[in-house]
Specification:
By secondary structure, the chain is an all-alpha fold. Helices cover 74% and strands 0% of the residues. The chain has seven helices and no strands. The chain has helices at residues 3-34, 47-101, 106-111, 116-122, 128-136, 142-148, 154-166. Helix 5 packs parallel to helix 7. The protein starts with a helix and ends in an 8-residue tail after the last helix.
Length: 174
């Protein structure tokens, strides 16, 4: 047997000794917790020990049930995120297609109520017509309208200026 093998055998024996000591300690703690009386040579839990064991078993079962429920909720959350991501991709591509194909009746947007959160996102659109809709909406925050005043598209900038004037701002004509 070479030195490396001998070292391996010694290390393994040490590990097994530590494991045995650990198992003995765990067994002693378990018996103490369960109220096992070994003085009479029997290993029977006391009434209090059986109650503790039952409580621990119920607690562990409840924890396991909670772990399973949390895992299921996590899966549902991941599924929801995936569905939301797919919906956003689909709705964005559909809107882009409608905009590019000329199928959108732009007058429809003037009568539709659009939430402020959506207006904030729409103000960053690459499509000038979408930014123009935002500029025309009365609920568009003033700070967004002020940014749209400097838009590259003159229709967007003019719509923002008109909306700000209706809100009482004085806008210099360029």
């Amino acid at each position: 047997m070479d030195d490396l093998q001998l070292q391996h055998v010694k290390t393994r024996a040490k590990v097994l000794g530590v494991q045995e000591e650990f198992n003995d300690t765990v067994s002693k703690l378990r018996n103490k917790f369960l109220g096992v009386d070994k003085s009479e040579g029997e290993s029977v839990p006391s009434q209090e020990g059986r109650m503790r064991a039952e409580l621990v078993a119920n607690y562990e079962a409840t924890l396991e049930k909670m772990r399973v429920e949390i895992a299921m909720l996590g899966e549902q959350l991941n599924d929801s995120k995936l569905q939301l991501t797919e919906y956003k991709k689909w709705s964005t591509s559909l809107l882009k297609h409608l905009l590019e194909s000329g199928c959108v009746d732009w007058n429809l947007f003037s009568s539709v109520s659009i939430p402020v959160e959506a207006l904030l996102k729409m103000a960053k659109s690459d499509e000038w017509r979408v930014r123009e809709i935002v500029a025309k909406k009365g609920k568009t925050p003033d700070s967004v309208l002020i940014k749209l005043l400097n838009d590259d598209d003159c229709d967007v900038a003019n719509a923002a200026a008109k909306n700000l004037r209706m809100k009482g701002y004085t806008i210099a004509d360029e």
